[in-house]
Amino acid sequence: MAGLGKRLIALPEQSNHAEISTFLSAEYPKLETLTGGWLIYKASGGSGQRKLSVIPPESEGYTAKMLKGISNNGKHTLFVIPLQEELDTTPLPADAPEFSKMPTSQCRTCGETLPLQFLALHVESCSKSAEDTEQEIDEDSDEKQDHDDQDNTSPVASEKECPICQVVYPADIIEMHASACVERTSTLEGLSYGGAGVDVEALEEPSATSSQMTPWQNQPTSSAGPSRPANTTEDWKTIPDPARAARLYRETMLDIHASGKPLRLHVNLGDSISDQEMAFIAFYKARNVEWANPMQCRLEGDPAIGEGVNRYWFSRVMQKLKEGFNLNFGNCCVTRLFDGEPDHLVPSSSAFLVESDLFLMVGRIIGHCFLHGGPALTGLSPAVVHILCGGTAETATISIRDCPDMDLREKIQILEGNSELSAAEKESVNTLCLAWDLPVMSNDKRRWLFERLLYHAVIGRAMRQIRKGLKDTMLWPLINQRPDAAPILFPQESSAVLTPESILDRINWPTMIDVGDDDDECSLEDKSRVTGYLRRFIQDASSDELKELVKFWVGWEAPSSTLTVEVINGGLPKSSTCFETIRIPAHYQDYPTFKKELMACLSTNDTGFGLV
Predict the structure, then answer these.
(1) Which DSSP symbol is given to 199?
(2) How far apart are CA 581 and CA 585, in angstroms?
(3) 91 and which of 1, 97, 431, 607 could share a cystine (Cβ 3.0–4.6 Å)?
(4) Across the strands, what pairs with 95?
(5) Who's near 195: CB < 8 A, 6+ residues apart?
(6) Does some domain include residue 127?
(7) Is 518 found in the same domain as 588?
(8) What is the per-residue pLDDT for 361?
(9) 333 or 427, higher pLDDT
(10) Quick one: pLDDT at residue 214?
């Protein structure tokens, strides 16, 4: 539909590179406006998804004789790939010259003559348009009749204003809206933080949520926003607050896809860590997935169900992006996708990771977690964020701290300043320049060479894959139209720090009343003592310990707007993450014992539910 695709081109035997370019431009007019050159690739070996390998041109470029031999006299398909630009894939009109050779046929509904590729889509839309037109005519006649009936009965308009949101609705649905509006008001006040078989299929809704021994089950308060009134005046494109705009965009996407086919992920906790991670990678490399659709994760070997399991999975996914996979992708025990120091993380320069489309997976994970209200990937380099949000590599401000390789950083840093270099320093820089196909150092090119070496060390092909992954998860409209939301999507490490006040302000403490002889309730003295221990733990805990506590409490390290505490008769601390509730046993008589057993429970966050 964009005028690209497969073509059979007959080349004269003695065609040179310029003539081949002319033939290609005639078949693909979009190549005429392409700047930056192109190369020809071929697929080799295997079946299904195959890797493309470049066909290196000769000294005078490509020739027909060369291409004939490589394609086995035209039996194998060759691919034209731009070097510096992306081909425009916008659909063309039906009368574009690219479709002049296609066979045509006539639409029986409207009589328009179109190429067959267009006709297949046109017939469906044309038939639907005709049906809609007939339906509109019928509705207009019905509305006219209803209007006449109203004129004969009562002139009073049957609309009322909602007392909660002050939006006008028809009288026959105002009661239904008001009940939902109350639920929405209490839900949307939540904080937007920082922002093994796998299959994608229809899923039946779970009938109940179990309460497990550490860590979590959750109700969908922050990850799946409720429906909004259709005529709401809020627009994520114009709201001044970028955090609120990002939250409204996320809720809009979830509302649109609320009735879509749910995504279902099965992970067997009995498998090895590497097998579980391969299942996770396979899930995010699946094609043609609507990532805003409802999601349900099921942990095989664990009875827990509900939103808390989803939160557990999103937390674990983001943790893997930050810490790496326990997979051997290059003679190492852990494969890291990002290198560098905090707030200067850059994608790994490994060609194997890029060719395996793992950074496409990274973009989808970031977008998927955002859509469902999960934690963000923190600590990326400002230069990386600039490029991911639509900026060009040439306009990115790259710092020497963005270079993760300390040896390269020392060599590149030699070029900073104007001091005279020793012979050994010049040789070290020149060796690096030659390895990266750059000219050797000279005084007039010193600053330019410093910037080019730094650019080569930091910016790689992974950026394009991550950006494509963000587009797959429908995050690009928000990034493109709300650049001020970039700190929400890609926050720095400092913005992800949890403080005791940020936790304590959200806690609903148990009611301090004397229950008398009720055996099911704890005494006022026990409640006061144990909640005091919990408050002391929160006040003394570090940011990392608070994150582990919140993960145990609600399922991920993003605190909900309301955190509930209950004091119970039991053995160890428990949590019901679906209801964002932590249950503390009343038997603790001293703070050291309480802290020791609570920390032991927090250490089980990565093992699932009920597997202490």
Answers:
(1) -
(2) 13
(3) 1
(4) none
(5) 246, 370, 375, 376, 378, 487, 488, 489, 490, 491, 495, 496
(6) no
(7) yes
(8) 93
(9) 427
(10) 33
Residue with tokens 């940020």: 502
Q: Is residue 76 part of a domain?
A: yes
Nearest to 266 by CA among 294, 301, 316, 292: 301
* Structure token digits, residue 512: 């301090």
Q: Determine the pLDDT at residue 310.
A: 86
Q: Which of 495, 473, 486, 315 is nearest to 384 (CA)?
A: 486
C-alpha–C-alpha distance, residues 359 and 220, integer Å: 29
> For 532, how many CA atoms within 13 A lie in the half-sphere containing its CB?
12
75 and 170 share a domain? no
One domain for residues 93 and 163: no
Residues 91 and 165 in one domain: no
Q: Chain-wide mean pLDDT for the chain?
A: 77
What does the alpha-carbon distance between residue 529 and residue 533 come to, in Å, rounded to a whole number?
7
> Exposure of 269 by Cβ count < 10 A (0-12 exposed, 13-18 middle, 19+ buried)?
middle
More confident residue, 539 or 228: 539
Of all residues in the chain, what percent are helix, strand and coil, respectively (each to 5)?
A: 45, 10, 45
Count Cβ atoms within 10 A of the Cβ of residue 601 and give its class: 0-12 exposed, 13-18 middle, 19 or more buried: buried
Q: What would the pLDDT profile of 164-184 be if each residue is shown by its tens digit? A: 555 666 665 555 555 445 433
pLDDT band, very low/low/confident/very high, at 199 (cuts 50, 70, 90):
very low
Which of 505, 510, 503, 584 has the alpha carbon at shortest distance from 551?
503
User: 174 lies in which domain range?
Assistant: 158-187
Alpha carbon dihedral 555, 323, 384, 417, in 10-degree steps, equals 140
Indicate whether 421 belongs to any domain. no
CB atoms within 10 A of CB 309: 27
**129, pLDDT greater than 70:** no
Reading the block at residue 452, the tokens are 């080019």
Residue ranges of alpha helices (H) inside 154-212 are 174-187
- Do 92 and 163 have their domain in common? no
CATH of the domain at 169: 3.30.160
Which residue type is seen at 566?
E
Together in a domain, 502 and 583: yes
- Please count the structural domains in the chain: 3
- Determine the pLDDT at residue 225: 40
Pick from 438, 450, 353: which is nearest to 398 by CA?
A: 450
DSSP-assigned beta bridge partners for residue 159: 170
User: Domain holding 521: CATH number?
Assistant: 3.30.2410.10
Three-state SS at 293? coil
Examine the fold and report which residue of 166, 187, 208 is the final residue of a domain before the chain moves on: 187
The pLDDT score that the predictor gives to residue 101 is 73
Residues 6+ apart with CB under 8 A from 403: 340, 346, 409, 412, 454, 457, 458
Residue that is last in its domain, among 187, 203, 236: 187
| pTM across the whole model | 0.57
The tokens for 612 are 């202490």
Query: Pairing state of beta strands 574-576 and 507-508?
Result: unpaired
Check whether residue 173 and residue 86 sit in a common domain. Answer: no
Q: Is residue 586 one of the residues assigned to a domain?
A: yes
Provide the pLDDT for residue 139: 52
Residue 569's alpha-carbon distances to 282, 518, 587, in angstroms, are: 43, 12, 7
Closest of 5, 18, 15 to residue 101, by C-alpha: 5
d(CA 459, CA 362): 16
Residues 6+ apart with CB under 8 A from 508: 562, 563, 564, 565
- What is the rounded distance in angstroms from the CA atom of residue 522 to the CA atom of residue 532? 15
Look at residue 471 in the predicted model and tell me its pLDDT: 92
